[in-house]
Amino acid sequence: YGYEATTVRQIADRVGMLAGSLYNHFATKDDMLHAVMRARIGQLEQANLMIARLAVDAEHRLLANAIMRIHHYVTYSQFHAILLRESHFFQRHPDFATARQTSGPC
Question: Which of 8, 26, 67, 83 can pair with 103 through a Cys bridge, CB separation 3.0 to 4.6 Å?
Fold first, then answer.
């Protein structure tokens, strides 16, 4: 349905919880999206830092980065689908600046 069209009740139904239970953990639907995005973006940042610190030449770091990104795209395809499908939402909302940077060109 897309982020904006999806309700908290639909999210709760999908994960087998009551909508009220989700609000015990998150104040808003945006907070839920932030949590999902923050976790995966943090993983990408850590992997990039690790690769940048490798004691190899630039060509090998570039290759390692490409392999890491492909692995991340495959492993976390739903996260990347959100980045692509919801790019218009991220562009309109300054709170999601990190997602805009992540979804940009590699």
Answer: 83
Query: How far is 78 from 6, CA to CA, in rounded Å?
Result: 15
The CA distance from 30 to 50, in Å, is: 30
At 15-44, the pLDDT tens digits run 899 999 999 999 999 899 888 888 888 899
* 14/8 Cα distance (integer angstroms): 10
**CB contact at 8 A, 90 and 31:** no
Residue 57 three-state SS: coil
Tokens 């692995």 sit on residue:
71
Q: Supply the pTM of this predicted model.
A: 0.68
CA–CA dist 77, 46 (Å, integer): 18
